[in-house]
Amino acid sequence: MSFFEVQHLVKYFGGLAAVNDVSFEVKQGEIFGLIGPNGSGKTTMFNMISSYHHPTSGGVFFKDREITGLKTYKICHLGVARTFQVVKPLGRMTVEDNVIAAAFSRVKSKHQARDVALEILDFCGLAHRKDVLAKSLSIGERKRLEITRAMATRPQLLLLDETAAGLNPAEVDQAIELIKKIRENGTTIIIVEHIMKVIMTISDRIHAINFGQTIAEGNPQEVANNKKVIEAYLGEEYAQD
Amino acid sequence: MRKVPALILLAVLLAFPLVVRDHYYQHLMILVLMWVVIGSGWNIIAGYTGQVSFGDAAFFGTGAYTAGLFASKLGISPWWGMVFGGVTAMAVAFPFGWITFRLRGAYFALATLALNEVMRHVATIWESLTDGMVGILIIQTFVSKVPYYYIALGLAVVSVLSIQIIMGSRWGYYFLSIREDQDAAESLGVDTHYYKMVSLNVAAFLTGMAGALFMNYMGFIDPEVVFSLHDISIMAILVGIVGGVGTIYGPVVGAFVMVAVHEFFRTGFFGFFKGLAAITGSDAINVFARYVSQAHVLGFGILVVLVILLLPNGIVGDWNKIVSKLSPFKK
What we know:
heterodimer, A: alpha/beta, six-stranded mixed sheet, four-stranded antiparallel sheet, 9 helices, about 35% helix, globular, B: mainly alpha, ABC transporter involved in vitamin B12 uptake, BtuC, two-stranded antiparallel ribbon, 2 strands, about 0% strand
């Protein structure tokens, strides 16, 4: 059985093919990197997986069940959580309340939800900021809150959309640590990232797309040396072998 | 500690009609308590869930007409309308929310405005059921105002308490997350459409009950009164905004202030202009006094501008700011 799979996903916005026939499979427990230059369709992929957009054609499968076109909240209940590239903190709620709201997706009572929230806040290293309003967090903390909130829904598969973008080098290292910790905890991760240090150090496998189409897939070393990938990032003249 | 002021307020309200025998002030207090209920209903959908309603009169009027028609058409006690008025208001809210919650922000607000007008026209035109502009007249149950006062107080306490309970529960967290960011809420497993429906229906139920209370208390309604855009729907918004959007006790404070302001204008600055006219014998002032008493909507507008400029979070929301401004011992 496959843990997670997308098959021949296509998404047209008007006449533009944002994603054109992309397929990949993710194994349970791995960190799967999704890379590509700006506008190559990475976030559109995430939006289709979490059902903010419905694919023009193709299917998304989670644990052998088709989840294409399900409501976004249902996909969360099934165990697929995501973070947003443009962070969406619940601004006028405290950090703790942000996480409690997410924890309610798994537990019924306020008491349990708070327990879950405190545990996850501690796990993600945001416990010291739990009583401040989410809108007063720094960008690094906001990115961390995105992950914390997603983790509070107890996902089996976590989609991280550029969680390291805009962070300073120390914060990037902390983010890498956190992502590794989440994987050790048994959560499978698909990560979209521009910062090569992040994607190359933590990914088990990487899938590269450009103009909405697959150009390479393999382990970080293979992808980094792939001619088409170098071409997409640096231009044709650098892609000599 | 936070419970102490609330309990003191409750004790004062319980003792009020026993101490103050004047019917006029008893009447005003009944209106205040009714507005606490309506304001709380508005607060839950607009203040906490972020779906601003300009059409609370649709639910208020539906509740009032339910109670009225029970008495006039079926000969059942209009007090049954207190329960069923809430239910029929929900029967209006349900299909309305189902369709319009696909709209976001200002578009939803415009839809509520339309609902208000639709319901007013239905009540006006459907004469075989509602007697149209003639309105509905029922015999009031009590001569004294005191029973109405305690019923209104009970309803107000129930609505404040139920909002307090809701906001401490999963519903409350979901309402707030919808207000803050619908996309984020969806990604956290919140069925936003469903929980917006829940919120709207709670609001409609409370507002419908307030409408039924109004019918029982006033004994007469017509479409212009209970489906009034400015006297009900806009007033509900003002109670919420003045008191403090998204605060438990905001509608309580807002109801006091707004009923007082409404009365201030209606009586021509508490009879100030009438008195002035009598002293000076000037007809012009008399005419002016009449205009002032009709200009309460204008007064409301000015008040809203002032509140938004000075106290954007309302009296309860900006309480600390008010205290520090008024405190004589400034640091």
